Automatic annotation (TrEMBL):
Pfam families: Sigma70_r2, Sigma70_r4_2
Gene3D superfamilies: 1.10.1740.10, Winged helix-like DNA-binding domain superfamily/Winged helix DNA-binding domain (1.10.10.10)
Residue ranges occupied by any HTH luxR-type domain in the UniProt entry: 122-180
Source organism (scientific name): Bacteroides zhangwenhongii
Lineage of the organism: Bacteria, Pseudomonadati, Bacteroidota, Bacteroidia, Bacteroidales
Family, as annotated: Belongs to the sigma-70 factor family. ECF subfamily.
InterPro entries, per the entry: RNA_pol_sigma-70-like, RNA_pol_sigma-70_dom, RNA_pol_sigma70_r2, RNA_pol_sigma70_r4_t2, RNA_pol_sigma_r2, RNA_pol_sigma_r3/r4-like, Tscrpt_reg_LuxR_C, WH-like_DNA-bd_sf
Alphabetically ordered keywords of this record: Sigma factor, Transcription, Transcription regulation
Protein name: Sigma-70 family RNA polymerase sigma factor
Length: 182
């Protein structure tokens, strides 16, 4: 699902197609990750879009030290928390402390016990929510594609995805690593 970090970083300097590949590969996973903080798919989409614009225009890819994937997820975490600080009347101190202490490493193994819990929670979703979650998050399909396949509107896809993510978050279980380990 993700692209090779070193391959894409080397091509970004002179290749807009490489940037499009990067956005196509990471946009949805970064939005899903951001929803964990914002509880809003629309807000998360704005955060990720703004990040990618800055990343390209300010040539932030030149500053990436280490793994690109980790850089992207950490940047989105920070941008999501900054958004909450600016737009919420109260501060989520516990979320902030936990998120800033913990560096994201999307390559970590997920324990079998945690996968079993995830499967249990996924079974609690409606069939429509489950299918949309799988298509968008796991199979990295665009909202428009999923809407066409299911014969529903793009807004309905977003609503079902948002409900599924909120439910998983309410179970205190949603993590990007778990969703992508299926």
């Amino acid at each position: 699902m993700f692209i090779a970090d070193d391959n894409i970083l080397g091509r970004l300097e002179n290749d807009e197609k490489a940037f499009k590949e990067l956005v196509d590969a990471y946009y949805t996973p970064l939005c899903v990750y951001s929803v964990q903080f914002t509880d809003s798919l629309e807000v998360s989409e704005d955060i990720v879009q703004d990040f990618f614009v800055r990343f390209w225009e300010k040539k932030l890819y030149r500053t990436v030290n280490g793994k690109l994937k980790q850089y992207l997820f950490n940047s989105i975490r920070n941008a999501s928390i900054d958004h909450l600080r600016k737009h919420q009347s109260f501060v989520f101190t516990e979320i902030e402390e936990h998120a800033y202490i913990m560096d994201v490493n999307p390559d970590d193994e997920v324990p079998e016990e945690q996968l079993a819990r995830l499967r249990h929670y996924l079974q609690q979703l409606s069939p429509q929510e489950y299918r949309i979650l799988m298509e968008v998050v796991v199979h990295n399909k665009k909202y428009k594609e999923v809407a066409a396949e299911l014969g529903i509107s793009v807004n309905t896809v977003k609503t079902h995805l948002s409900h599924a993510l909120k439910y998983l978050r309410s179970c205190k279980f949603i993590t990007l690593f778990s969703l992508f380990s299926l």
